[in-house]
């Protein structure tokens, strides 16, 4: 519900958080809506991990709505790709800020113009998500997303996790077959009684799919 609400809001909200503005705003010392929005996701991830990917992000919702056309041979996508995207983005922001000699930042949440460029960008982003799902499988855009990489990096001390019960687990792997992010749930539960992977988006598919009800959310 939360995801759908957010997705309905997106055409309007998108004007305040367009991805092209993040870099150009920082370049001139402005903290725009895109920086604030992404900053809130990152701060949330310190305690709750990548929960925003599973429950808030409209592009995550789009991927779930895409299930009928999603490639059933979901592939593992190496994490270094999304960390690589993030690194390139980070270096370009730092270089641009340094080059423009920006000394102080100011908050400036202004809408981008409702022009053809931003409408095309908006539909391209949804198109990209549909393409990745059809080509690479379930939640593939989440496995490539540089913002997801930042949230994973920010969450080593997160408190919200999926907990299991290794003694009662039948190792049927139903949870793994349904996992949005292809995570090795059973081996992690066998080791630590919980899913300790930074890339878990707390979507709860494993919780719903375990036929023995052995998985649950745990905040501690
Ligand atoms: S481990 Fe469970 S909650 Fe985490 S991504 Fe996989 S299905 Fe979602
Ligand atoms: S679905 Fe449940 S019983 Fe099966 S492997 Fe996963 S946690 Fe164990």
Characterization of the model:
The chain is mainly alpha-helical and 220 residues long. The chain folds into two domains: 153 residues, no CATH class; 59 residues, 2-Layer Sandwich (Alpha-Beta Plaits). It has a three-stranded antiparallel β-sheet. A two-stranded parallel sheet has the order 1-2. α1 crosses α5 and α6 packs across α9. The protein starts with a helix and ends with a strand. The protein binds iron/sulfur cluster (SF4) (2 copies). One iron/sulfur cluster binds next to α12.
Q: What small molecules are bound in this structure?
A: iron/sulfur cluster
Radius of gyration: 19 Å
Per DSSP E runs of 2 or more residues, the count of β-strands stands at: 5
- Helices and strands, in N-to-C order? HHEHHHHEHHHEHHEHE
Class of secondary structure makeup: mainly alpha
Outline the biggest β-sheet: 3 strands, antiparallel
Q: Tell me the count of domains.
A: 2
Coarse morphology:
globular
Query: Segments where pLDDT lies below 50 for 5+ residues?
Result: none
Portion in beta strands: 5-15%
Instruction: State the helix count.
Output: 12
Strand order of the largest sheet: 4-3-5
Mean pLDDT across every amino acid position: 87
What distance lies between the first and last C-alpha atoms, to the nearest angstrom? 25 Å
User: Which percent bin holds the helix content?
Assistant: 55-70%
List the helices and strands and how they pair.
Elements: H1 2-13, H2 19-27, E1 30-31, H3 33-48, H4 51-55, H5 58-65, H6 79-99, E2 106-107, H7 116-136, H8 140-144, H9 146-154, E3 160-163, H10 174-178, H11 185-192, E4 194-195, H12 205-209, E5 216-219
Parallel strand pairs: 1-2
Antiparallel strand pairs: 3-4, 3-5
Helix pairs in contact: 1-5, 3-9, 6-9
The chain binds iron/sulfur cluster (2 copies).
One iron/sulfur cluster is lined by residues 164, 169-175, 185-186, 210, 212, 214-215.
């Amino acid at each position: 519900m939360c995801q759908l609400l957010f997705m309905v809001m997106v055409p309007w909200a998108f004007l305040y958080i367009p991805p092209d503005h993040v870099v150009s705003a920082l370049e001139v010392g402005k903290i725009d809506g895109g920086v604030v929005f992404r900053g809130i996701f990152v701060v949330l991830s310190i305690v709750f991990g990548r929960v925003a990917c599973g429950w808030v992000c409209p592009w995550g919702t789009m991927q779930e709505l895409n299930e009928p056309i999603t490639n059933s041979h979901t592939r593992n996508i190496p994490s270094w790709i999304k960390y690589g995207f993030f690194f390139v983005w980070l270096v370009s922001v730092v270089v641009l800020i340094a080059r423009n000699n920006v000394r102080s930042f100011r908050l400036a949440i202004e809408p981008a113009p409702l022009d053809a460029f931003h409408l095309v960008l908006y539909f391209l982003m949804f198109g990209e998500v549909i393409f990745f799902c059809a080509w690479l499988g379930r939640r593939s855009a989440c496995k490539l997303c540089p913002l997801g990489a930042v949230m994973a990096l920010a969450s080593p001390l997160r408190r919200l996790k999926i907990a299991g019960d290794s003694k009662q687990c039948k190792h049927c792997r139903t949870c793994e077959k349904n996992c949005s992010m292809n995570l090795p749930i059973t081996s992690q539960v066998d080791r630590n009684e919980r899913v300790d992977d930074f890339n878990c988006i707390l979507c709860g598919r494993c919780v719903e799919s375990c036929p023995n009800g052995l998985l649950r959310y745990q905040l501690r």
